[in-house]
Amino acid sequence: MPKIVDHNLYRKELLEKCFDLFAQKGYASITMRQIAQGLGVSTGTLYHYFPNKKILFEHLVENMVQRDISIATADWEKLKTRQERAEALGKYFNSNLAYHIKNSYLMIDFSQHQDAKGYQNSEFWQRLCERYKSVIYDFIGIEDPVLADFIMCFVDGVILERLLGIDTVDVVEQCTLLGKMVTAYLDKN
Amino acid sequence: MPKIVDHNLYRKELLEKCFDLFAQKGYASITMRQIAQGLGVSTGTLYHYFPNKKILFEHLVENMVQRDISIATADWEKLKTRQERAEALGKYFNSNLAYHIKNSYLMIDFSQHQDAKGYQNSEFWQRLCERYKSVIYDFIGIEDPVLADFIMCFVDGVILERLLGIDTVDVVEQCTLLGKMVTAYLDKN
Amino acid sequence: MPKIVDHNLYRKELLEKCFDLFAQKGYASITMRQIAQGLGVSTGTLYHYFPNKKILFEHLVENMVQRDISIATADWEKLKTRQERAEALGKYFNSNLAYHIKNSYLMIDFSQHQDAKGYQNSEFWQRLCERYKSVIYDFIGIEDPVLADFIMCFVDGVILERLLGIDTVDVVEQCTLLGKMVTAYLDKN
Amino acid sequence: MPKIVDHNLYRKELLEKCFDLFAQKGYASITMRQIAQGLGVSTGTLYHYFPNKKILFEHLVENMVQRDISIATADWEKLKTRQERAEALGKYFNSNLAYHIKNSYLMIDFSQHQDAKGYQNSEFWQRLCERYKSVIYDFIGIEDPVLADFIMCFVDGVILERLLGIDTVDVVEQCTLLGKMVTAYLDKN
DNA sequence: AATGAATGAGCGTTCATTCAT
DNA sequence: TATGAATGAACGCTCATTCAT
């Protein structure tokens, strides 16, 4: 019997530790050697668990998104009005803002990389977006897809502003405004 | 006998031509050789005018931003209603969408540069953001700074979605919706 | 409790199964992992029986050659004329041509091994060649050693052409021609 | 003006020096670093002149074949009879036998390498074989393509035997016999 | 000023081999 | 005896940068 290791568990552990490494430097800039070193393993071991950089990143994102959504939606059930929920959304992003900024940067960085070409039509990516949008549908209680896109754009935009270093934008304040605007719009139509 | 050349003028010319090259492939992907080739000079010459890739890129961004704003606002004066203007905004981004996507990517890439950290508090960057917002103020006819930020976030978010490859988002449609939402919101309050 | 296994017998069994694996991909291309997998054992076990890839390969070649000659000569006894036998030779190589090509490649690969340099003067190698030639003597019914060498060269050459990818060479046709040429030559002298 | 170098000339010089390096270790075993070192340049320089290992090898072979054929056929014009020519062929291979053995090994080694997959149908390879065969046609004065293939197989086989370390095969003697056999065969038919 | 040949550290990845269990 | 996780040197190749001309 070899060294006793739960392959899948260890994979998950590595993935967990990977996130910050990727987030610190971006997909393209961090090297597999640096990741291995950061994880305290050899490159060989890293490749033993993940066949290549792209797939490592893919697993990372899957992990991240899964966790994100479950955290974000954890205690939204008790919130009744749209306005309450919009404000909870703002609070969610505002806590761990640095994390969400990193997160966004990673997605952007990867999407522009050679490795991502042809990726945007992939099942994986499509599924990601669907899951993302379904959170908006369910949570804000919206059925108009154009409006759902609107909210998605806005939310990503808010994070982006902070990523760009524009600190005057206040995430909570903006989401609060979002709630009001959506309500005003829906009431009128 | 050296060619008689105005060093600074030639620098500016090179910069101007550089823009498309960077915008086509992104900062990380384009190589100095490719840039030199695209400019019709040798790598040696390129390095004669710019000490390294990063500095070349920084100069480029400065140039780009300056030009961009003046183009965007060129013929908006004749549009009267908010809705008209919101829709013009959508059309502006929708034409040359690929350009605007790359443009955004370049800004993001730039903002993540180690050297850009200081930049974000710099006079240059601040001025840039102010100018950006004032376009929104003037153009959409909004005075509430939170609402101006909202619109800025949204617009950047729309571009970002496309950068991420989410093609279902329609820029014109989204801006049209923006106009309606802003109106509904302002009418109500 | 260790499995009760006759070490040498198991070695031989592994060797037998190894052959196809090497023959399919060639010495350089197949990895120890692939071999182990093909044998249904772990890499650890493979290394338990053979200290390294080279020695595994050497044992393999010894095994292969021994087996090959006995197969080739199995049912040639009933063929009477030289021409019949020459054509049988062609058919023999033509069936399992892919195998013979790989086989030749393995021999060539082996012969170029650093460790094989000593081998070429070794009793083993000498004996091998003698046995090879004696097949030609017996089978084609030739006693002139130069002519035997000629046939040996030709046969190996035909296989080599195919190894090099020259598909226009037809093994059966060539061996048929060989029969005619030998006959013409022997009749004349 | 950069360092003054005749690009094509230098390429040719590098190619010339490359041959022994490849021949010593085989295509797969020699590394680009070792080649560069052997040539006294950096890997970067090597890649400046040749885009990859495969193409480097391709140029090498082209060079080699061109030279080989012109040397081989240089003074065959004055030889009149087939027998004289066959014997000249033997002498040609016998002088520089070590070179021809290396040469054959290189071709075999390459043909089995991953890089060569799909290569055997390439224009380059086809042209090589055609040129090779046309030497046989012209020189030995043969028009029957099967017979030309026969001779090609035989010649390659002779070299192969020596490559395999079978020193009892005498190249000159074998080619002399070839001449006689071809004559006997053609006289009879 | 201008060229492009030259450099070499570093990339993602592979794989023979070792070793704790 | 048997396992497969772990290693790390080495591969083909890239590219920002330097420098002799």
Outline the fold blueprint.
Four copies of one chain form a homotetramer.
Chain A: H1 7-25, H2 32-39, H3 43-49, H4 53-73, H5 82-94, H6 97-112, H7 123-141, H8 145-163, H9 171-188
Helix pairs in contact in A: 1-2, 1-4, 1-6, 4-7, 5-9, 6-8, 7-8, 8-9
Chain A binds a DNA duplex (21 and 21 nucleotides) through residues 1-5, 7, 10, 31-33, 41-45, 47-49, 51-53.
How would you explain this protein's 3D organization?
The structure is a homotetramer of 189-residue chains. Chain A is mostly helical. The first copy, chain A, has one domain: Tetracycline Repressor, domain 2 (Orthogonal Bundle), CATH 1.10.357.10. Helix content of chain A is 74%, strand content 0%. The first copy, chain A, contains nine helices and no strands. The first copy, chain A, has helices spanning 7-25, 32-39, 43-49, 53-73, 82-94, 97-112, 123-141, 145-163, 171-188. In chain A, α6 (97-112) crosses α8 and α7 packs across α8 (145-163). The radius of gyration of chain A is 19 Å and the shape is elongated. Chains in contact: A-B, C-D. At the A-B interface, α6, α8 and α9 of A face α6, α9 and α10 of B. Chain A binds a DNA duplex (21 and 21 nucleotides) through residues 1-5, 7, 10, 31-33, 41-45, 47-49, 51-53.
